[in-house]
Amino acid sequence: MTGGFVYHWLRFLDRVFPPAGQTVQRVFTKIAVNQALMSPGLNGAFFGVSTARSNELLAAAGREQWLRDWRAKINKDLLDTVIQSNCLWCPAHVVNFYFVPPQHRVLFTSGIFFAWTSWLSTVGYRKDI
User: How far apart are CA 99 and CA 76, in angstroms?
Assistant: First the structure.
């Protein structure tokens, strides 16, 4: 679902932080920009999808309930999820941006993204006890 977006996003990052003459400082800056912009947005959006599934979105009351549920989920889980995301993605992107050729980065990212989405699904769909 996000492959096309990731392709364009990684190309954008490569334009802003060109891979030619890559330095450790540039890689860490690229990772910081990537994580600051992508982690809260993508993980928060995933929580929106996971909470939408349990609400009737065709009815106004269902949409209102969904927004309340989404806000509660973000307040409860987003910070921890972003921290966990950084624990996975920062090392993965060191490899991705420093060692993986640009034409193979989407493939590498997609493999890591599959693992992350599997983990995120357990967080997004767990029932509060």
Answer: 36
pLDDT of residue 5: 83
Give the three-class secondary structure for 101.
Answer: coil
Question: What's this model's pTM, rounded to 2 decimal places?
Answer: 0.79
Check whether 71 has a pLDDT greater than 80. Answer: yes
Please answer whether residues 79 and 20 qualify as being in contact, where contact means their C-beta atoms are separated by less than 8 angstroms.
Answer: no
Under a CB-based contact definition with an 8 Å cutoff, are residues 55 and 69 in contact? Answer: yes
Instruction: Output phi, psi for 55, to 5 deg.
Output: -130, 150
Separation CA 44–CA 48 (nearest Å): 6
Name residue, tokens 């690229």. 30
Residue 87's identity, in one-letter code, is C
